Amino acid sequence: MRAFLRTTLIWAAIAFLGDTILGPAIAIKGIAPDFSVVALVILALAAGPRPATVGGFLIGLVQDLSSPSSLGLQAFCKCTLGYGLGSLRGRLVYGMPVVEFFMLVLAVLAHDLVFLLIQARFGPESFLGTFFLRSAPVALYTGIVGLPILRLVEFLGILRPED
Length: 163
Prior knowledge:
The chain is mainly alpha-helical. The protein has helices at 2-25, 35-47, 49-64, 73-87, 97-119, 124-155. The protein has six helices and no strands.
């Protein structure tokens, strides 16, 4: 129970405090890291696909409450991302910064790819510009900022290889 509580507090704090307080403070020309994806990666690596799916749904639902026009879209994207990341849990080598960096970058790109495709209703005009001019820098910035967070969480003993 203690490990579950500790893991839940860590990923929830990273998702909500990171996106509301830290993200806007360290944004560079409007590009801020996506702390909700960092939290989802931590949850998926710590607990597996089921908790990551539920956690992704909850994170996305809270984000959806800020934009009622696309209610459910963030929840869907984060939910599927959580399941996909959780499924990778037993297949990754822990403690390799290169793997963790690219996992963070690819997680943001995968999330934004699905989100923007659904939001643009599969129209390539607005999708490509937004994806390359906004999502790619956000993904790289998330990888750079999220890597020390993942290393710290691993140091604290929350991320551990699957038993």
